[in-house]
Amino acid sequence: MSLPDPGREAEAAAALGFDLSECVQEPIHLLGRIQSHGTLLAVEADTGTVDTAALNTGCLLGIAAQELVGGPITRVLSPEDWAEALEVSVQHEAASLVLPVSIDVAGAPRMFDVTAHRRGPFLILEWEPRAVALPHFARYYQEVRRALTRLRSSTTAAECCQAATREIRALTGFDRVVAYRFEGEDGPGEVVAEELTDGHEPWLGLWFPASDIPPQARRLYRDNWIRVIADVDDVSVGLHPPRRAGSGVPLDLSNSVLRTVSGFHLEYLRNVGVKSSMSVSVLREGELWGLIACHGDAPVTIPPELRAVCEFFGVAFSLQLAVIEEREQAEALTASRERLDQIISRVTSDLEDSLLAGDDALRRLLDADGAALCRGGRSTTSGMRVAPALLETLQARAAGLSPGTVWSTDRLSEEPDQPGGGMTECGPAGILMVTLSRSGDFLAWFRRDRPTARQWATDPSKPVQVGPRGERLTPRGSGAAFRAVVRGRSLPWTPTDRATAQELWRTLTGLVLRHEAELAALTEQLRVTNSDLDSFAHAAAHDLKEPLRGIFNAATFVIEDAAADLDATTVRRMLTMRRLAGRMDDLLDSLLHFARLGRGGLRRIRVPLDRVLDAALEVAGERLAEAHVRVIRRDLPEVYADEHRLYEVLVNLLVNAAKYAADQGDRTVEVLVDTLRTPAGGPPPQQTVVVRDNGIGIPADHQCEVFELFRRLHGQDERGGGTGVGLAIVKRIVERHGGELWLESEPGCGTSFYFTLGHEGGD
Known about the structure:
alpha+beta, single chain, six-stranded antiparallel β-sheet, seven-stranded antiparallel β-sheet, 24% strand
């Protein structure tokens, strides 16, 4: 038998007259009835006026409910007792207290245990008759002390649960006591420990469907440590008035010790053969971990002091269980420390390569089948294949969580935001993710589907059957155990897995921050160095121009005034000196201009590219015409750029097209704008300006050099000369815009220059 979610889907699919949704939706804290062995009064705390009374006050307290409502509480409670109850309830509003009270009923004294607790404006008093004069606190103290000592000796969670069931049964005398662990806050439950009398069928290891304890019942178990049902066949007692005048709903009995329970639950207990029951909640970090459930073969009334002992034991058991689990988690974390250290030791600023290296160390860290790192919108995976849509979903989820948050599921197909309608056959069934940043970066591990066989206390496909009392919830643990295979789930993620992931996050955060600090320091050093270089280049170019100009002029004067008196060799040397001085002056002009590009700011605006091209052609057009290069211009939109700097880019690229025009044929240079992805591959595609010629092209081994300063692909006097600065200036201007520059070229087929100008709004 294979079920995707036994206990929930199967029960919901039962097509019978009994409607399980009624059980789930029933407001069990507003049933308006109490168990008949005691009575109840709700008193306005400010005035001492009885607001609501149980209908059995007449037989227990000697005054009918109709007479008590609207009158003072001092008719049945002494002013001293009322003052004590009121004072303690104000000091401990969230707790309850028990007062021993003696009142006259029909002329005879009668002892009661009165449990008091606050609920909104009311102090709710619950009266339980006492058969003996004094509580047996001394006896209970010794018993619970011994029980707690044995509980503390447990070293594993299984031993702790077994000890708890044994001690609770010894304290209470119930015929069956089980420790019942929930699978998640709304999942089915498993009996993990049990103590029972002879003749009872064992339930150890059986699973019970989630609908056995609906969500509203779980909330009450979480808020109340203990719940007692004295007699499942008890005829419960109503309240007067049955509904509150202001709200129209019954009195809220969420924390009442006498509150009756749902008729569905009573029918459930009857079908199991239980006459009385008690449940002690087990909490873990404020959430319901499970229950210690007690069943009796006969009705039994649990006195307040025994309830208090069991409640105290439940608190101690929860704490001991938490200590054991935390110790086990710490030991497991210590065991995984060596693997964690191996991973951390190789981490560099390149997290993708260092974390998701060729081996599977990161996956082994959490016994996972796959892993993924998503940073800056780019995802790197290792191991099992993960659909891109799932990674996008995880990124959206991570963006809504604080950095360092660990989120996990072992049943991905049940997640409401799961893409594609659920888990695919080869995709992950479980995910554990730790968020790295508020922008949605994350590190995640994935596990495959692990089918698991379970023994169920009832056929989960038939939660409702016709029995001796009609169509009701079936008995649980009825002798026939049903085997079902749970699919669509991975191995569950343990607290150790989550702690290990968070420890890795903390370490990575420290490493990344250190790398960022080092990078920031290097960036500042580079900024200072660049500033110094710019200043030096500017000063050197400016200061050297004057002596060069003097050398050029002196050589010119000598040639003009004394050439006739000089021999041919000297004249040739003087001409060379003048030519070299002029060449040096041109280089310094280029260097001075290049330095200024790093010193001045950009003034970026939306500018028509057509207008900038027209201005560039006024300068470069003559060179293009001399080289017989025809200009082709496409539709050119507006671009966001510094207009003067963009003008320089186009002038240099157009002059470059003229300089390296083909030796023959139809010579062209084309200017257009396209939407392309940059070579770096970063999304999204950007608006790209293209200047494409059909000239001589650039050999592949020289393409990486053409943007370097003072690098030429020809001799000094070939193809119109030049300083070799033009393309370096183009590169620097593009980078100042936050853009990218690259080329595609093939010798004999021309060259295409591509450049972007960064994003609008950039500096």
